[in-house]
Design brief:
The structure is a single chain. The protein is 10% helix and 43% strand. With 100 residues, the protein is mainly β. The protein has a single domain, classed as Alpha-Beta Plaits. A 5-stranded antiparallel β-sheet has the order 3-2-1-5-4, covered by helices on one side. Strand 2 and strand 3 form a beta hairpin. The longest helix is centred in the middle third of the chain and has 10 residues. The protein is elongated, with a radius of gyration of 22 Å. The mean pLDDT is 83.
């Protein structure tokens, strides 16, 4: 009489890393870039929030900041823009593969 197929048990389950994820599955870290612009005062600012850090004001325009992050391995995930009248803001969410 043929035996029924066996179900995988703990002995045949994939190995898991320290984080609990299966080995070989990438993990990601996320950052955000926020810009605020006021056309009346002609003031603008760009701030970056990296994992585990505080939001920090950056020198340069939005393109320079995003290109700098891209050179460090960050890639754009999402973008949102809003505003009314003379002011506006943009928010960019980025990710990069975690080294852990």
């Amino acid at each position: 009489m043929p035996r029924p197929p066996t179900r995988p048990g703990p002995a045949s389950a994939p190995r898991r890393g320290v984080t609990g994820y299966r080995l070989g599955v990438p993990t990601w870290e996320y950052a955000s870039v926020i810009t605020a612009n006021d056309a009346e005062s002609q003031r603008a600012g760009v701030s970056v929030k990296l994992p585990g850090g505080q939001s920090e004001r950056q020198q340069g325009d939005t393109s320079a900041v995003l290109n700098g992050l891209g050179a460090e391995g960050w890639e754009l995930v999402s973008y949102h823009s809003s505003g009314a009248g003379t002011w506006g803001f943009e928010q960019f969410w980025l990710k990069r593969q975690s080294s852990a």
